[in-house]
Amino acid sequence: MRIIEIRENTIQLEGLLSNATISFESHTVSLVAVITDQRRGGRPVVGFGFNSIGRFAQGGILRERIIPRIMKAKPYDLLSDDGLKFNIDAVVYAAMKDEKPGGHGDRAGAVASLELALWDLNAKLLDEPAYQTIRGSFGLPQGGNSVPVYAAGGYYYAENSPKRLTNELRSYQDLGYQSFKIKVGGLSLTRDLERIHSAIGVAGAAANVAIDANGSFQLDQAQEMANAIEPLGLLWYEEPCDPLDFSLNRIVAEGYNGKIATGENLFSMIDTKNLIQFGGMRIDKDIFQMDPGLSYGLTEYGRMLGVLESSGYKRSQCYPHGGHLINLHVAAGLGLGGCEAYPGVFQPIGGYTDQCELVEGRISPSDAPGFGLEQKTNLYPYLQSIGK
Fold it and tell me: Rg for the chain (alpha carbons), in Å?
């Protein structure tokens, strides 16, 4: 068994929307296909992955560095001992040959897109959904597969009226979502508070609404927002400050009794360790949002979980950023606290499929082999094109 080709296709995300710091109008994603010499139903077995949402495609790094290194490796060096699947650690080791430690940057997403494609591939070789493959690989017992979910939206548009926001959230509510996350930091405090109260009006309770500042605040702004929302009892307050300013995060957390959420812009186990040591994150309270698709993949994410749990935190405090099918399988497979969904934005990558069961605020992946990306109708044409 061997890999015969690895391909990358850059996909443009749909939507003219912004958060407090950036516009997503030009954002792209790298879709990767790992094509093997194995066949099922007369077709090659292909693993698909991508590097999540919120950064950019990494086609240059993949084509110039990562893919050539893997294709130069001896095929049997990339296989598991039983030869039935690929050894993902070995493939990542080959991909990272001659890369210096630290300075993770865009290569973390490049490697992740390929690493996650291998999880999809291994699950297909085993003819099982990826969450089961993930459980088996991490030595976890098989069991239920539903996890709590919230709908992420509430971005800034050209027309930012409270009515537009409430209509958006009600559309998610009509799909079965009960909890929501909206953006703050892009308007005045007064106008953002109007948006927060509008969201609470739809959700029915402040505990069903999270807010995300996307690292836009300086200390005084972060504390001003914290003081304004603390009496409300929101679900959490996300990325109030620069994601690598751990000292500022600690100061905000020390003065705010609600939950702080952060981590989506941390790309390694060492980053996570530094957040734990210096960021003031509180055991049994705060939320960690590291995203495998932005941080070398699920293997490195497992190391992040390891350092969290060894420091007294629980995996139930983890809600991966991303809002897509891959991280749904990750959350279900690893028994995390929950996941987010992008039911209305960042297509064709964001959101789930009709086969995913959403009941009373919990969602389950389908039992399709792999991540089930082929069931996503608006993504399927891209898979067909790159995987044929």
Answer: 20
